[in-house]
Amino acid sequence: MTYAAPMKDIRFALEHAAGLWRLKEGFPDLDGGVLEAVLEGGAALAGDVLAPLNTAGDRQGLKLVDDRVVTPGGFDQAYAQFQEGGWQGLSADAGFGGQGLPKAVALAVHEMLQGANMAFALCPMLTLGAIEALSAHGSESQRRDVLPHLVSGAWTGTMNLTEPQAGSDVGALTTKAIPLGDGHYALHGQKIFITWGEHDLARNIAHLVLARLPDAPAGSRGVSLFLALRNSVEANGVIGARNGVRCIGLEHKLGIHASPTCTMAFEGARASLVGAPNQGLAAMFTMMNSARLNVGLQGVALAEAAYQKALSFAKDRRQGRAEGQTSAGPAAIIAHADVRRMLLGMKARIAAARAICYETAVLADLARCAPNPEGRAAAKAREDLLTPIAKAWSTDMGVEATSTGIQVHGGVGFVEDGGAAQFYRDARIAPIYEGTNGIQAIDLVGRKISADGGEAMRALIAEGHQIGAQARGAGADALAGLGARLEAGCAALAHATDFIVAQNRVDRRAMLAGAVPYLQLAGDVIGGLLLAKSGLSAAGTDQRQNGAVRAVYAETVLARAPALVPAIELGAAALFEQSFADFEA
């Protein structure tokens, strides 16, 4: 069984949960027909071209030959089709060859690509981030000479942050940028964990690299961003000699075996400055925020792929007699209550995470194209609030769902030939890279909540109470039950937000001790809010969502949300009263 893009669920989430048509004024050419055509084309690319390469690519892996990375068989033809279809530039500026569609629509296509073949899709995902970073911070010449190639997919992009001694602490990096006297710089240093840092799919690679100028201040305030091409480009556009950058090693990883994770050596690589000196971290965060939302969607995509496989297996696999069975012979395991519980639990959490990610994407579009400054500012504030939740909550969900997919398969899931294990192995990286989920939680409470005293979250909670009341009054069905649970969840989140804001003033260690369960609570509640909102939006249409999704989410996720408050209020003493030696006792 291969992956099939969940077109109905994606469109439902876009239109009814995320409110895609709020963007109509900013994107007047977007209509239902355009949306359908884009989604259908993306689904065909994902299902017909990328999905068949997923298992083979995982098993074949990669080769490093004389500092060149050789990708698995079929990846080059697949990338050629991706490029020819113009898929890289869906949301890019038309002035650079893009199609100018909303980010939310491009994100929907990327969900399909990630679900079909995450290892492959990581390449265009990083390129998308490079496009956004150069669009926002690049010089006129960088945008003119580089962006059209990235937008077309002829070149790909990378993000070079991590060094052996500088992972999450970017301020500890030591890569140097030495001025050459002609407006360019020579980069010297080593970067690790560089996704698609070297490959044989595209004609050139644009590396975005964090490095230090000779007179840079210490820490993160002394970090600058540079653009270094793998190959030089002649005045006539011909690709020239290799620059002083090469791949010197490939990581052997738990998953994403067909995605090269490279150690890159910069040996005097010629580069140009992106943005202002010593302001590189701010510029790089444009790329990182793009990647964080896309990584959140990886959790959704892999969970969806795992769900599809588990559902197919559960329909075919026959074991035992189901309760109340009247026919002879063993029943398909989908007839057993526990298997149904697992499958519907996966489906409900996937729907909530998809809604969170698409809502965040629509807000990003509104932050650029809302008709007035107040609307743009409000959308930006909520986008910023939701981004760490979209990344962390969705990727934690992805690990949980892909693990559940293995459980549905039983012993067949634990062996590689069963096919379920790859989804779990691939999903496990998502809570780690682009800022660990613990760092996302710290960002949420330490920056987003603390910056405005929790006002943006309180506005969201107030909206949740309103939607919960509307849903509760919708009648004695699953939507009404979801509304009641949502109101209780909103009350718990309001209480927890007050605690976080208060602790930020008096005991930041206590605030940080509750950061991860606070993010989980926020994701649980916001997911329920968007499921209720979509249920209300779709009422009376032929796009109604399965009521079981809302019922299962209400009683297995939202019902437990208030129980997270004690973990949020645990305080610092329980974590910090122990000495290092006590951890070993």
SSE layout:
Blueprint: H1 7-17, H2 32-50, H3 54-60, E1 63-65, E2 68-70, H4 75-84, H5 103-116, H6 118-137, H7 140-145, H8 147-152, E3 155-160, E4 176-179, E5 185-195, E6 204-211, E7 224-229, E8 231-233, E9 239-242, E10 245-250, E11 261-274, H9 280-316, H10 337-369, H11 373-409, H12 411-414, H13 421-427, H14 437-451, H15 455-472, H16 478-506, H17 508-513, H18 515-538, H19 547-556, H20 565-568, H21 573-576
Parallel strand pairs: 3-6
Antiparallel strand pairs: 1-2, 4-5, 5-11, 6-7, 7-11, 8-9, 10-11
Helix pairs in contact: 1-10, 1-18, 2-5, 5-6, 5-9, 5-10, 6-9, 9-10, 9-11, 9-13, 10-11, 10-18, 10-19, 11-13, 11-14, 11-18, 14-16, 14-18, 15-16, 15-18, 16-18, 16-19
Task: Describe the structure in brief.
The protein has 585 residues and is α+β, with helices and mostly antiparallel strands. It has 21 helices and 11 strands. The strands form 3 sheets. Strands 3, 4, 5, 6, 7, 10 and 11 form a 7-stranded mixed beta sheet that branches. The chain has a two-stranded antiparallel ribbon with strand order 1-2. A two-stranded antiparallel sheet has the order 8-9.
